[in-house]
Amino acid sequence: MFSTRAGKQLLTHYKRRQFATTSAMGTDFTHVVIGAGAVGLAIARKLAERDGTSTLLIEKHDSAGTETSSRNSEVIHAGLYYGHDSLKTKLCLQGKHMMYDLCRRENIGHRNTKKWIVAQDDQQWEELVKVHKFARSIDVPTRFLPLQEAHDKEPDVRAQAGVLESESTGIVDSHGLMSWLEGKFQSLGGETAFNTAVTGIEALPSGGFKIHTASDDGNSEPVTTETLINSGGLFAIPISNMILPESRQLKPYYAKGTYFSYSASHPRPNTLVYPAPRPGHGGLGTHLTLDLSNPPRVRFGPDVEWVDNPNDYKPNHSRLAAALDEIETYLPSLQRDAVEVDYCGIRPKLGKLGAVASGKGFQDFIIRKEEGFDTFVNLLGIESPGLTSSLAIGEYVDGLLYR
After folding, report:
1. CA–CA distance from 274 to each of 119, 153, 246, 248, 353 (Å)?
2. CB within 8 A of 84, min separation 6: which ones?
3. For the ranges 154-158, 236-240, 278-282, which has the lowest average pLDDT?
4. Is residue 168 scored above 90 in pLDDT?
5. Kind and range of the H or E run holding 175
6. How big is the CA angle at 249 (ends 208 and 90), to the nearest 5 degrees?
7. Sequential DSSP letters for 41-81
8. DSSP 370
C-alpha cells in the first residue's frame, strides 16, 4: 500500500515491525498524521517523541511541504493581527519564539528582518494605532518611527501618515525547516508514506480508525490507527467530511495568492514592508518581502483571488496591474517593467473571511477533538500564520491527546 520515495516499503513491512503492539486498541499505529506540510511534520515529530508509540505520516505528494507550506512569503510573524483569545495569537506568539530558538540551535536559515507597516492617510493611521495598542497588550514589541528616521533608513519607502515597526518579525527558510523536521521525525522512528492519497476513513466500533488509501503504484490497502490527526491543509475539509456526519460537514474555500518577482537593482528596501491592514480583507495586502540570499531578493505578494480549484497554481497575469498599483502606494519609485508574475500559493479557508481580527468575519484556526470521536484531532483553516505557529501547533495537538 504505502510507498516511500523509493517505493519499496509496503504495509506488510509495517506489520512485520509489529507496531500494533504499541497501541492499546491493537491497531497498526498509535498515531496517523495526514498531511506532510510544516504543520503535519511538526505534529508528527512531536508525537514520535513519545516512548512506546508508533507514528505514520501520510502524504499524497512525493515529498513534504509542496503546497501551502512552500508557496508563501516565509515570514516569521510577530502575532500582530489576530486579536485576544484567538488560537492564532496564542500559537503564533509561542511558535515565533520556538522558531527562532530552533533555527539558531540547528542552524536553519533565518533572519530577524523586522517589518514596517505603513500608512498613507488618516484612516490607515488609525489601523496602525489599533495594531500598536494590541501589540502592547500582548507584550509584542512595536514602535512608531519618526518620519525622518524612516526616510533616512528606507528613503524609497513612502509612508505619508506613519510607520509602525515590528521588531520581532523575520523570515525563515521553510524548506530547510521542513527538511529538519522530516529528518528528526524519521530519526525518532517515525514512518512516512509518500505518494499515498487518503480515499476513505472509517471509525472503528472498538475505537480508532481504518484509513483507506491509494498509492501511485496502484496498490490499495487500509491501515488502522488509534489516533488520527487531520493536517491535510487544502484538503483538510474533504478529509474531515469523510468522518463527520453530514450535519457537521463543511465547504472548503480557497484563497489563491499570486507572488511577483522584481529584477531591478533599485529600489530594494532591506525591511519587510506591509500596507496597513484592511478589516475584512482575506489577506494582509500585496506586501514586500525578502529572501535569505545575499543581497536579498525582493518579491511582492500575495494578493487574494477566490478560486474553486485547490490545484490551480497557474499564475494569473491579469493580477499584475492591480498589484503594481498597490505596490506603488508604498514604493513609488518602483520600476513597473521589472515586476513579473512569479508563482502562486493557495490558502485553505473556512469562508470568504478576514485575515485580521479588527474587522468582521475574522477566521481563526480550528484545532480540536471532534465530538463523538475522542481520538480524532481536526485542523481546519490552517493558513497564515501557520508556518510561524507550526512548532507550537505540534505541542498543542500533543496536549489535546495526552494532557
Report:
1. 9, 16, 41, 37, 20
2. 134, 137, 138
3. 278-282
4. yes
5. helix 174-187
6. 80
7. HHHHHHHHTSTT--EEEE-SSSSS--STTTSS--EE----S
8. E
Contact status, residue 94 vs residue 156, Cβ threshold 8 Å: no
**CA dist., res. 393 & res. 342, Å (int):** 30
Question: What would the grid cell of residue 269 be?
Answer: 528596501
State whether residue 15 is helix, strand or coil. Answer: helix
Terminal Cα distance for the chain, rounded: 33
Q: What is the DSSP letter of 281?
A: -
370 Cβ contact partners less than 8 Å away, ≥ 6 residues apart: 240, 243, 244, 248, 376, 378
Tell if the pTM clears 0.85, that is, is over it: yes
pLDDT in tens, 299-318: 999 999 999 999 999 988 99
Total number of residues shown for the chain: 403
Q: What number of other Cβ atoms are within 10 A of residue 377's Cβ?
A: 23
Work out the burial of residue 251: count CB atoms within 10 Å of its CB; fewer than 13 is exposed, 13-18 middle, 19 or more buried. Answer: exposed
pLDDT tens for each residue of 51-63 = 999 999 999 999 9
